[in-house]
Amino acid sequence: MLVDSNIQIMDSFDLTVLIIQRICTLLAFLIHFPLTLLILYKSPTSLGAYKCLLIYISIFELVYAVLDVLVSPELYTYKSSFMIVLDSNKTFLPFWMLYPINLLFCGMLGCSMAIFTINFIYRYLVMKGYEK
């Protein structure tokens, strides 16, 4: 058993999950921030609307990573359903703020799937080209 900053006892699995979440957030920043800068300043203007889509996806994922650290959610799945549980001891946010941020996190989780779908549909349509 290990102790976190709130003097709560955490077992090794919970601590491992928490560390992995923090490392993945750091990786998201290390990847998406330079990626956004590269898209803005080094990509050709011929990309057009796709350039804007890539910037939007990158910024969206940065915000999502921040929310993941703020909320520290625990996701449970069963068949086609999922449930998100928040432990108020694992976050430094006040209790009254957890519910709206959890709603935002859940909404962004669903939007994330839709954004990747839009990205692949856009790429497919560009590759297929215009047909009469």
Topology (elements, then pairings):
Blueprint: E1 2-3, E2 9-10, H1 12-42, H2 49-71, E3 73-78, E4 81-86, H3 95-128
Antiparallel strand pairs: 1-2, 3-4
Structural write-up:
InterPro entries: 7TM_GPCR_serpentine_rcpt_Str. The chain crosses the membrane at residues 20-41, 53-76, 96-122. It is a single chain. This protein has helices at 12-42, 49-71, 95-128; strands spanning 2-3, 9-10, 73-78, 81-86. It is an alpha+beta fold and 132 residues long. The protein has one domain. The strands form 2 sheets. A two-stranded antiparallel ribbon has the order 1-2. Strands 3-4 form a two-stranded antiparallel sheet. The longest helix has 34 residues, at 95-128. The mean pLDDT is 84.
Radius of gyration: 19 Å
Terminal CA distance: 66 Å
Q: Which strand-content bin applies to the residues?
A: 5-15%
Q: Based on Cα principal axes, name the global outline.
A: elongated
Name the strands of the widest sheet in spatial order.
Answer: 1-2
Major pleated sheet: 2 strands, antiparallel
| Number of DSSP strand runs | 4
| Helical content (DSSP H or I, runs of 4+) | 55-70%
By DSSP (H or I, 4+ residues per run), the number of helices equals 3
